[in-house]
Write a structure and sequence with these properties.
187 residues; mainly alpha; TerB-like; 9 helices
Length: 187
């Protein structure tokens, strides 16, 4: 008979069984399945950079899909931002965005927090603020930042451990696209 298992050991094995924690956890460097699959497609890149780009693309797709519709404009914005921000060739950025969108569509409910928490661990404060600005840029790509997108960005900012003032500053960059302000102008 094996010894009694601690609550932590049981919790870890349940998370592994559910696919929410890799069986060979490397402490704070553990990857989510979404990040691992996308990063694996980034052949030739340093593993840490690939993980960052994968998590970044996933979080962009999280915002684009928040209103249950990812427009072509939002997709093109994500591809451009991933190419520029990740210093990737366009075909690779397109592949990364396609995978991020697919994985988010299939597993978004369970992976959203886990991927964002992972991104928070691997990005410094300056990168997190830049990510926040990119999130607003994607949501404004179709000329309207919906209330649900705005709320999702606020949630992501909290998960990235950013301050409310960071959100307000980034939100100012897309002020004219905020759906809530467009409504009030029409009234």
């Amino acid at each position: 008979m094996g010894g009694a298992r601690t609550v932590k050991e049981v919790r870890v094995s349940i998370l592994e069984w559910l696919g929410l924690r890799p069986a060979t956890d490397h402490g704070s460097q553990a990857e989510t399945e979404a990040v691992r699959k996308i990063a694996d497609e980034l052949d030739g890149l340093d593993r840490d950079r690939a993980r960052y780009i994968a998590a970044f693309a996933y979080v962009l797709s999280r915002v684009a899909g928040a209103d249950l519709d990812i427009s072509e404009d939002e997709t093109h914005a994500m591809e451009r931002i991933v190419a520029d921000h990740g210093r990737l060739p366009d075909p690779q950025a397109v592949l990364v965005v396609r995978m991020a969108k697919s994985h988010n569509l299939l597993f978004g409910g369970t992976d959203n927090y886990l991927v964002t928490r992972e991104l928070s661990r691997i990005a410094d404060r300056d990168r997190k603020v830049a990510i926040l600005e990119c999130l607003f840029a994607v949501s404004a790509a179709d000329d309207s930042v919906s209330t649900v997108e705005d709320n999702t960005i606020r949630q992501i900012a909290a998960e990235l451990l950013l301050e409310r003032t960071d959100v307000v500053a980034a939100r100012r960059l897309v002020r004219e696209h905020l759906a809530v302000l467009k409504k009030s102008r029409l009234d």
